[in-house]
Amino acid sequence: MNSQTSITSLLFILLFILLPSSTAYFSQYVIPDCNFNNNTYTENSEYQHMLKDLLKRLNISTPGAGYSTAISYSVNRTNDVHGLAMCRGDLELPQGCSPCIQHAINEIGKLCPYMKNAAVFYDHCYLYYGNETFKGPDKMVGNHTLRYNINNITKVNREKFYKVREKLFSELFVEATNGTSSPKFFAIGEDSVSSDLSVFGLLQCIPDLATKQCKTCLDYHVKDLPEYAGFSAGFLSIGYSCFLRYENKLFYTKPTQPPSPPPEI
Ligand SMILES: *[C@@H]1O[C@H](CO)[C@@H](O)[C@H](O)[C@H]1NC(C)=O
Ligand SMILES: *[C@@H]1O[C@H](CO)[C@@H](O)[C@H](O)[C@H]1NC(C)=O
Ligand SMILES: *[C@@H]1O[C@H](CO)[C@@H](O)[C@H](O)[C@H]1NC(C)=O
Ligand SMILES: *[C@@H]1O[C@H](CO)[C@@H](O)[C@H](O)[C@H]1NC(C)=O
Ligand SMILES: *[C@@H]1O[C@H](CO)[C@@H](O)[C@H](O)[C@H]1NC(C)=O
Ligand SMILES: *[C@@H]1O[C@H](CO)[C@@H](O)[C@H](O)[C@H]1NC(C)=O
Ligand SMILES: *[C@@H]1O[C@H](CO)[C@@H](O)[C@H](O)[C@H]1NC(C)=O
């Protein structure tokens, strides 16, 4: 599919406009995806009204829950709008996610004007709406992956970097999918390559997949790391229903340590 090519070039344009110098690499990013297909709706159509209503409901339900879905039913059921929004799993809810969701619902119509299907991915949240549902094993991965690199790490540590990254993501994969993570299907972690280089990684699936589907989805992104991430110091791989990210800087909020138990008397 050549939509991937155009997405890639769009992302490169965004890279140069948006790359901040002092914060985490992807923190200022807005990655719109308007290219699901070219179906459009018109001003004042039933679809537009339903979409507005859908986004309002996602705006209310997502920040507290971290994830929510909604459907607006059309009168004759041939034009329903589906939507979902998800917060990055480490954020404190609702306050850590609410600004992102509000921003996303305000911007998506400008980023993808009149598109019947659209998505936008930000540092803190992800939003999709469309007349097509995309959940399901056949649509989860492939054909629609957005990938995004930043500069390579310096040569010295490359081999070790590769190994550390691979090990980190195999651990995060287990952590995200073995049923213990909170929120569901989420893992963050770091490992160090050298005294001045660490890898900070994150994996997350939308929580209403089956475990097996989440595994398939994450596996797809993880196994592509050598090919697509190479020696990049940071990488984002975004699919329909899961995503992978790493950087050489801390970009997520570490969980606060539970208070140590009182000493036994
Ligand atoms: C949508 O239209 C654009 C421009 O006409 C084209 O480049 C793109 O490939 C189309 N996308 C799909 C999914 O058909
Ligand atoms: C979505 O809308 C397009 C036309 O805009 C239509 O061709 C397609 O069948 C619709 N999809 C569903 C699942 O209704
Ligand atoms: C989204 O929710 C916030 C409050 O949480 C509200 O201030 C804002 O107006 C809402 N936006 C829309 C478009 O409903
Ligand atoms: C269903 O509604 C859509 C838009 O409101 C309209 O374009 C379409 O013709 C309707 N289909 C039927 C079968 O009534
Ligand atoms: C990608 O698209 C091709 C052709 O449209 C299809 O045969 C294939 O199953 C799709 N792959 C995935 C993973 O959806
Ligand atoms: C990173 O290194 C690969 C080969 O190792 C090279 O193809 C690529 O252009 C480099 N990327 C940057 C941003 O320097
Ligand atoms: C799941 O993974 C976590 C983190 O790696 C580990 O602590 C836990 O024991 C695992 N649980 C099961 C049931 O495998």
From TrEMBL:
Q: Return the CDD domains for the record.
A: Gnk2-like (cd23509)
Instruction: Please give the start and end residues of each transmembrane region.
Output: none
Q: Which InterPro entries match?
A: GNK2, GNK2_sf
Signal peptide per UniProt: 1-24
Q: Its domain of life?
A: Eukaryota
Q: Name one Pfam family in it.
A: Stress-antifung
Q: Which UniProt keywords apply?
A: Repeat, Signal
Q: What is the official name of this protein in its record?
A: Gnk2-homologous domain-containing protein
In its UniProt entry, the species of origin is given as Zostera marina (Eelgrass)
Q: Highest lineage ranks of the organism?
A: Eukaryota, Viridiplantae, Streptophyta, Embryophyta, Tracheophyta
